[in-house]
Amino acid sequence: MSLVSQYVEELPATRMEMWIDAKTYLPVRLKSRDKNKAVTTVTFKDIRTNKAVDENFFRIPHPIGYEVIRRPLDRQGAVAP
Predict the structure, then answer these.
(1) How far is CA 18 from the centre of its chain?
(2) In the prediction, which pLDDT does 35 show?
(3) How many domains does the chain have?
(4) Which residues span the domain enclosing 8?
(5) Is residue 74 assigned to a domain?
(6) Across residues 45-64, what is the average pLDDT?
(7) pLDDT digits over 60-78, tens only?
(8) Is the pLDDT at 47 greater than 70, yes or no?
(9) Integer Cα distance of 12 and 37 in angstroms
(10) Residue at 68 is within a domain
(11) Tens digit of pLDDT for each residue in 1-43?
(12) Alpha-carbon distances of 34 from 10, 13, 27, rounded to whole Å
């Protein structure tokens, strides 16, 4: 699959290519090209799906005095005022 953005001016990547495994339908490689024609390739290996993940994996320790502010999203996924 090849992705070419219509928003080339706003995005750092001008082109992305993704290889999908025909049996699992999971991505196995992603290649992106930026405006300077630099190429970055990411290869996914040993992909495991539907595995339990400890909730603490996603917890980030906050420094003293740090305040977390949660804002709801609107229907388009934007932060509501």
Answers:
(1) 13
(2) 79
(3) 1
(4) 2-58
(5) no
(6) 89
(7) 888 899 888 888 877 767 7
(8) yes
(9) 11
(10) no
(11) 666 656 556 666 677 899 999 999 999 999 988 878 889 999 9
(12) 12, 4, 20
- Answer yes or no: are the C-beta atoms of 43 and 27 closer than 8 Å: no
Residue 28 lies in a domain: yes
- Tell me how far apart the alpha carbons of residues 2 and 18 are, in angstroms, rounded to a whole number: 6
User: What is the rounded distance in angstroms from the CA atom of residue 18 to the CA atom of residue 26?
Assistant: 10
Residue appearing with tokens 């290869």:
43
CA separation for the pair 54, 72 (Å, rounded): 25
Pairing mode, strands 27-34 and 39-43: antiparallel
3-state secondary structure the chain: CEECCCCCCCCCEEEEEEEECCCCCCEEEEEEEECCCCEEEEECCCCCCCCCCCHHHHCCCCCCCCCCCCCCECCCCCECC
76 in a domain, yes or no?
A: no
